[in-house]
Specification:
single chain, about 425 residues, alpha/beta, 6-stranded mixed sheet, two-stranded antiparallel sheet, disordered N terminus
């Protein structure tokens, strides 16, 4: 008959009963939070009769049935368990429900890992651009970096590689926009890494939002929820989510060239028919607008009215339909390189002023009926709406921004439709 000299593990049947459950759970939370220190008390609110009797038994002190909260020193609970089972509080909890977490040590490890990740990111060539360290600081301060590290996600470092590959950030503004799958493949080796809604896409868009805010004086805001706003962020840095979805609406934009897209443009212009060009078409075909003077508006209603009233007699017109798309910028850049002059206008609101200022800076555009006098005339003409959003400067006419601030009213460009059609005719 063999004997086993090893001690028999204690039976913790009592400790698995209902009266012990909350008490031991509270002890475990406290010990994990403090790294296993047996100092201080734990408490139970609205204790049951079974819990009250256990606390009395552990502490040796009577507690009345009317007590709404009971406290018990961790040292007393440790001593009780050691006496009764031969295992202290830490060992008992470990045997019952597995090893305790050392949260202070985990936080120290997370801090060290975060510091290493930040140091690696700060070594990027982008570190001398003001928006970039600001972005790193924000994702570290709001816990984003910690959450990624906890789940073993290297999205932050992959986001840096994506940013470094973006043509608009690298200074390759004249280069055709990169489709997101191509960008994802180049930066991460995974064509699906930048799918909408993923942590990597969100991180990169937060950086681009920081960059955009730093560039135009807008306050830093959240990544746009709407598809158009997110598309605009990508395109601002030289990437495009879908080169078929990126389009530009035109009227009477003839083209020089022998390919089918140029034939379509010439045919549409011959009949005064509005036409949509995709970025894919502009990338695969050598489209060079033939017009020497091109007007640009923001709202499709203006182009629609020009097509209806003037047909093929209307001047060449491009509609941005809000913030210009990559397709719009590509077409207009080709026009400017060939010697065309752009006459640009948008709504009299802060967004419209920013769009116009960006066009002046990027394409050398000339503001078209975007003066203080034009604004005051339109404002006096009737319908207006309250101005919203952060103010924008008007370098081509500083008094215009002051006039908008003074009135607090926005005027959509349709209010100038009669004058615009006169110019286009």
């Amino acid at each position: 008959m063999s004997t086993d000299s090893r001690p028999t593990p204690p039976s913790y049947t009592e400790l698995r009963e209902e009266g012990w459950r909350r008490l031991l759970a509270a002890a475990r939370r406290r010990l994990e939070r403090t790294g296993g220190t047996l100092h201080g008390d734990i408490g139970l609110t609205s204790p049951t009769e079974a819990e009250r009797r256990i606390v009395i038994g552990v502490t040796g002190r009577y507690r009345p049935e009317t007590a709404r909260r009971l406290t018990i020193p961790l040292a007393d609970l440790d001593a009780y368990l050691h006496t009764r089972y031969g295992t202290g509080l830490l060992q008992t909890l470990g045997r019952l429900h597995g090893p305790l977490r050392d949260r202070p040590a985990e936080r120290a490890d997370e801090a060290a890992a975060g510091a290493r990740a930040l140091a690696a990111a700060q070594a990027s060539p982008l570190a001398d651009q003001g928006w970039y360290p600001a972005w790193l600081e924000r994702i570290a301060a709001d816990g984003t970096l910690t959450r990624l590290l906890r789940r073993g996600d290297a999205a932050q470092l992959r986001a840096v590689r994506v940013l470094e590959k973006l043509p608009g950030i690298r200074g390759d503004a004249g280069r055709s926009p990169l489709p997101l799958p191509v960008l994802a493949e180049w930066a991460t080796g995974d064509t699906k890494a930048l799918l909408p809604g993923g942590p990597l896409e969100q991180l990169v868009l937060r950086a681009l939002a920081q960059r955009t805010a730093a560039g135009d004086g807008q306050p830093v805001g959240a990544v746009p929820r709407d598809r158009a706003g997110r598309r605009a962020l990508w395109e601002s840095a030289g990437a495009v989510a879908d080169d078929l979805a990126s389009q530009v609406l035109v009227l009477n934009i003839g083209a020089r060239g022998d390919d089918v897209v140029c034939d379509w443009l010439r045919d549409a212009a011959g009949f005064g028919i509005p036409f949509r060009l995709t970025l894919h078409q502009l990338t695969t075909a050598a489209v060079v607008p033939a017009a020497r003077e091109i007007h640009v508006c923001e709202n499709p209603a203006v182009l629609r009215a020009a097509a209806a009233e003037l047909e093929d007699r209307a001047a060449a017109l491009v509609c941005t339909e809000g913030i210009p798309s990559a397709a719009c910028h590509k077409l207009l850049a080709a026009a400017v390189r060939s010697g065309a002059r752009l006459h640009w206008r948008a709504d009299f609101d802060w967004t419209g002023l920013r769009i116009t200022a960006a066009a002046v800076a990027r394409h050398g555009a000339r503001p078209w009926r975007m003066s203080t006098a034009d604004y005051r005339s339109a404002l006096a003409g009737g319908e207006s709406t309250p101005l919203t959003g952060p103010p924008a400067p008007t370098p081509w006419d500083p008094d215009l921004a002051s006039a908008l601030r003074a009135s607090g009213r926005a005027v959509m460009e349709e209010r100038l439709l009669t004058a615009l059609l006169s110019d286009l005719g």
